[in-house]
Amino acid sequence: MTASNIKKGNRLFWKIASVFTVLLIVLGMLFAWLANRFSQSYYTAAHQELYKDIAQHLATFTQPIKNGRPDTSVTHDIIHSTMVANPSVEVYLLDTAGNITDYVVPDTTVRLHKINLSLVKQWLSASAMHHPLGDNPKQPDEPSIFSAAPVYENQRLSGYVYAVLSSEKQQEILQPLNRFFYWRMGLYILGFAFLTAFIVGVITFLLITKSVREIMKVVKRFKEGDYEARITAGAGSDLGTLGSTFNEMADVIVADFEKITATDRFRQELIANVSHDLRTPLSIMQGYTETLLMKKDQLSASDEERYLTVVHDSVRKLSLLVDQLFHYAKLEANLVTPEKESFDIGDLASDILMAYKLKAGERGIDLKMEATPNLPAVFADIALTERVLQNLLDNALKFTEAGGSITIQLSSLSSGVRVQVIDTGVGIAPEDHAYIFERHKQLDNADHSKHGMGIGLAIVKKILELHQSTIDVTSELGKGAAFRFMLPAAVKLAFKS
Questions:
Q1: Residue 431: how many CB atoms within 10 A of its CB?
Q2: How far apart are CA 187 and CA 193, in angstroms?
Q3: How confident is the model over 128-148, as pLDDT tens digits?
Q4: How far does the chain reach from its first CA to its final CA, in angstroms?
Q5: Which of 170, 444, 453, 495 has the greatest number of C-beta atoms within 10 Å?
Q6: pLDDT at position 6, please?
Q7: Phi and psi at residue 279, in whole multiples of 5°?
Q8: What is the mean pLDDT of the chain?
Q9: How wide is the angle at C-alpha 417 spanned by C-alphas 416 and 418, nearest 5°?
Q10: Which pTM value belongs to this model?
């Protein structure tokens, strides 16, 4: 590898290592936070279960309330001894309304003088591990675990023993321990994160760069012209998605190359064949105009008129060819947008046949139309449809000899109107059916050598594609040809008055 590649590889390594380090540190901090929360929850639940009977013992083995008042001579010593033995416990005596009537703590530290009895009653009826948190007289904003028991005097409820199991003393002891625990856990996690990130970064770097180097070799081969080069890594391997994506991209590029090559080849054939078609009328025009210039004083009026007629016909053919080329170029460039409307296809076909009657009659060709009754209107671009019928008729006239016939058949189907242009001309060999709609195709024929199909049929195909329709042909040599396509029927909207 070159120095630049090594440098880029090092940057990749440090990026991977940095990402893993940050990820592990974040996960470590999250783990520490969760561990602390769960440890606190565990300690709280355990402390609740261990000391939940303190209040019951005090209420049972002492008589903290006599004649409806706290018996301080008895309870203070016991409560004080309990709080000395377990500093996390603070004991309060409550009356039946929840008011605190006695306690053994400095009075100035007690901020709440009434306990919510609904929580006490809920605690007394709760099952194990489901005790609620209650009021903390010293810290009203921080609910605490507690123990509670009712006190009865002469079978009558006279108050409650209320023992807070998480006192200020407990928090003073636990806070330094928690800070120590956090620091130690944080240091362990940080060290583990750096070590793991380094190891994982090195392994990942080596694995990824190995695959990357293999991919770079294949890409370089493809760049140098080896279009068969593909990445062989399977979908289950590392960077398998990248490899499969490159292979798909390479297939698309090769297919595009083939399309471009084919298009260029067709374009060259089109230019060559169209050049031949252009050269013929140009040569005729040049020959006759030169004759007119050289022998203008020697030609009779009839010869001069005949020469000018030939030149005029050549100009007309040349103009028609140029028009077809221009129209085909617009279709190829997707610059033509059909302006569809509803119209009578039978009327359009009749008008076109009327325009071609004279030309067909001069060549001795019978031109006719057959249509089923009650043809529905079609929904299409009328100008483009006219161009389709004209091109098909021009093609039929070109290959139909004197005495033949050309028929336009219109048939009504459930989805629209089927249009057929049938001639009795020289026909098309079956092996050439697939090529006649290409841009320019010269077909050899047993009776007519090198008849040029031109680009008229290519224009027909393009126009019908714009109408989401297709054209097909049925033909045999010497038996004429039949071109068919379908136009959709116009939708009739019914309005209720």
A1: 8
A2: 10
A3: 778 888 998 888 888 888 989
A4: 84
A5: 453
A6: 47
A7: -65, -35
A8: 80
A9: 125
A10: 0.48
